[in-house]
Amino acid sequence: MREKLELIKQNALEELKKIATKEDMESIRVKYLGKKGELTSILRGMGALSKEERPIVGKLANEIRENLENIIGETLDKIKNKEKELRLQKEVIDISMPGKKQIVGKRHPLDLTLENINDIFISMGFSIEEGPEVEKDYYNFEALNIPKDHPARGEQDTFYINDNVVLRTQTSPIQIRTMEKEKPPIKMIAPGKVYRSDELDATHSPIFYQIEGLVVDKGITFSDLKGTLQTFFKKMFGDNMEIKFRPHHFPFTEPSAEVDVTCFVCGGKGCKVCKNSGWIEMLGCGMVHPDVLRNCGIDPEVYSGFAFGFGLDRIVMLKYGIDDIRFLYESDMRFLNQFK
pTM (2 decimals)? Predict the structure, then answer.
């Protein structure tokens, strides 16, 4: 058995001199030192040896194993170093070569428009408020005078986390949170992402952006609301922009109205976009419902207010002539590179 061990050692050393890759090294390691390797097979036969021979053969086998493991480790290090040198030679950088021009991205039209809108309202004395996108049912519905049986609370329109938590369907909850923590006068806008259970198509998306505004103080009237919106749209789109109000109903405002603005495309003359009316529906608004003020601890006998809300996506699409809302969310650089 000693002769067999010496022969295994000699054969292994001869083969190790010839290898050139890590794969060859692994094959030799498995062949001689693996679970079914030649050295392991010899050790399994030690049971047939006498008590006197076992320690001698065992010691010799362990020495051979240790010797082979050391040589394999050293040889493997040499192979790795050689491969590294070859790789570095191939990766040499010629610093005299001209550099590659980095592609610089463009501002997203949603971001550009939101910045413009924020600047306009800040110049009018509004603050910008934020709130959670995962919202309590109370803030998203109940505090806004939307009862349990209201159609807007249906699962076909709302993403429910559980019975008491939803993905906010509007940024109005930020108005409630602001009125709870601040005393009038309040003058704020709440831009942010909202979620509706809509099928994705050219004009609908389950995720989109809204901007809602709120003013609460003593003596606030509908005329203040009209003047604020008229000032905003003229600053946003030019002095020729006009607005008109149509009676409507919202649970959280009374009286309520929808606002149309001069058609962006034809300037009010009439075209396909505005269905030859010269007007485009833009937002909903109204005087804050007294119950909403009471829910926030504000006395409606002392204070009044107005609120409004519009879709940022809609303004972007109208402003830039975009006919498909999906362009705003697909991150297609061919589309985004058009904007500065």
Answer: 0.67
